[in-house]
Design brief:
Number of domains: 1
Radius of gyration: 13 Å
Order of helices and strands: HHEHEEEEE
CATH architecture: Roll
Number of helices: 3
Structural class: alpha+beta
Strand content: 35-45%
Shape: globular
Helix content: 25-40%
CATH topology: Nuclear Transport Factor 2, Chain: A
Distance between the termini: 25 Å
Largest sheet: 6 strands, mixed
């Protein structure tokens, strides 16, 4: 598994969320099961100020290879970080697919885990 690349892909989406650029987060994904408004509402309802995760936040990323996929595919869960609590209970769920040199990201969910 290309852990460094998975981490970079996850960070790109997480950083857009922490910047409040929900449209860019959705646009960065080839498929999104959530709308821009869905993301905005989840972040608002959680009631914290989200920040960029520390550099080592995703060293042990929760990524599971999806068996039986035609292309290398991972189901990934990544916590968001807030100013108030550090690692939060709000978790971003993504499906990441490697298609040659291209990485396709599917935004599956953002919820309290």
């Amino acid at each position: 598994m290309a852990t460094d690349t998975l981490e970079q892909v996850v960070r790109a989406v997480v950083n857009r969320l922490t910047e409040g650029d929900f449209e860019a987060a959705v646009t960065a994904c080839s498929v999104s099961r959530l709308t821009v408004e869905d993301l905005r509402q989840v972040i608002y309802d959680y009631g914290r100020t989200f920040i960029e995760p520390p550099e080592n936040a995703y060293c042990n990323l929760d990524a599971v290879a999806v068996r039986g996929s035609t292309l290398p595919t991972w189901s990934v869960r990544a916590p968001l970080w807030s100013h108030e609590e550090g690692q939060s209970d709000l978790t971003l769920e993504l499906t990441i697919i490697r298609d040659g040199d291209r990485w396709n990201v599917e935004l599956d969910d953002l919820h309290v885990l």
